[in-house]
Design brief:
2 copies of one chain form a homodimer. The first copy, chain A, has about 250 residues and is an alpha+beta fold. Chain A starts with 17 loop residues before the first helix and ends with a helix. The longest helix of chain A is centred in the middle third of the chain and has 27 residues.
Chain lengths: ~250, ~250
DNA sequence: CGCAGTTTTGATTTCTGTCAACGTCTGTGG
DNA sequence: CCACAGACGTTGACAGAAATCAAAACTGCG
């Protein structure tokens, strides 16, 4: 049967890359064939690639930076955000393994927003020109990219709806459920439990609230037995009821 | 000197199409050569096209509709919005002459959001397959579309920042200034004056506020002599000061 | 004229932010 | 091993922004 060997060694820290390579667009496109450690024999990357590792809390790039490279996250969590002149920030999306750091880099050098590592982040970058050339040879690829773009835009719109029309409770519950779905689709969630490396100020910046208020809402959720957070891991204890909180309107 | 003849006849209603065809992407792409009335001799549309006129306040399409056509607005204003189950709405963008109604229709049949005419709207639709075929023959077109997409996504992000991190005053002022910029870039604004067919509930739905509060903020703006609204037309009386309101943070 | 959709205004309530104090946790360095 | 600093989380009192409710005036239109 040759079942995959179970990892006995306890893995601490961010989710392993291998499990997400399968759903990473760079892999899917044929641009990347997995992390170097896994590259034995024919599984070599098709495109020149640079790989970097960034410690937690470090800025990966700034709002005004220009880039020739398109980076894909292999491991860890990051956040893309816009900072206003008074220092307040709006997180536009959390970047998980397999995500492109700023899809706008596929077409132009401007990232348009700041990206910050939440956990330690490992990412691989491809030259935009290489990807573009690839894109022109394979018309199928265009559809894949288009679908990715549409997903991203759809999520941006849903964010706007959440921020414009939902209460603090709903926003936070929806953020958690969104993350769970995205992790699950990458095989990075186990049932109702998921990695949750976010600090409350990340949740606040993503939901347009303050960290203090996030603390109060999360406490309320816990008091009602909806969720449990411990050791950078979150479990949804009452999925149906929690879903109701997120979908009140 | 041959100065442009001043329009003596008072134009009532939405802005004329001709002035916006020049900046319409359908025209730019070579898919469309202007409104039928203007089609004399060689200036024929390159692609089969259907043209429709919708009265004000009518829904153009619903959230779940599927379409084979990609519609471009020729005349009038529309709004794309998402409606929640309790009836509250978030307007995602106002669609002006030259805009694509739902860019997601370029790549798939799902519009993802509802579109409603604000004024009477005239629009022309092209078959998605035709546009896609065109796109594959002209690599230059791809860049144009990509740029359009990025603009749209950028605006979606800015909306999220506004909704998440700005006060009512800022949001409303920014909405007005955004509209003015977009109209000006299409030649549809005269100095500090612009068409303003929006009802206060449109402004409310776009800014995540209530119509009552919008009324109070607009009254405040007027009381301070920042703007003037009359007869569906808006003038910014103190541009610098108004800009400051919009950019407080 | 009458009616439905708007806009205005004021009184009141609800939600979320601000401020401040305090407790916990983690890593650092002596 | 302990002391310490800095980031993080919790809690309560209070303030401010915007929502809600309600009533009335206004607008455009058939």
């Amino acid at each position: 049967m040759n079942a995959p060997a179970q990892l006995k060694e306890p893995y601490s820290g961010p989710a392993p890359c291998v499990s997400s390579c399968g759903t990473c667009p760079a892999h899917d496109f044929g641009a990347c064939h997995g992390i170097p450690e896994a590259m034995n024999g024919p599984a070599a990357a098709l495109l020149p690639v640079s790989e970097q590792t960034i410690p937690a809390r470090r800025v990966i790039f700034r709002q005004r930076d220009m880039h020739d490279m398109v980076p894909f996250i292999c491991r860890g969590w990051a956040a893309s955000a816009i900072t206003l002149s008074d220092g307040s920030r709006q997180i536009l999306s959390f970047l998980l393994p397999g995500d492109i750091i700023s899809t706008s880099l596929l077409f132009g050098p401007a990232a348009h927003c700041m990206v910050e590592a939440i956990t330690e982040v490992q990412y691989r970058s491809f030259r935009r020109d290489d990807l573009k050339a690839m894109l022109l040879t394979d018309p199928d690829l265009l559809d894949k990219i288009a679908r990715m773009w549409m997903d991203g835009k759809q999520r941006a719109y849903e964010l706007a709806v959440d921020l414009g029309r939902r209460t603090a409770d709903e926003r936070i519950a929806r953020l958690i459920l969104n993350l769970k779905d995205r992790l699950a689709s990458r095989g990075l969630a186990e049932g109702e439990t998921m990695d949750f490396p976010l600090r409350q100020h990340h949740v606040a910046d993503a939901t347009g609230l303050t960290a203090v208020h996030v603390s109060k809402v999360l406490s309320e959720f816990r008091r009602n037995g909806l969720i449990e957070i411990s050791d950078r891991s979150l479990t949804i204890l009452k999925p149906a009821e929690f879903q109701r909180v997120a979908t009140m309107r």
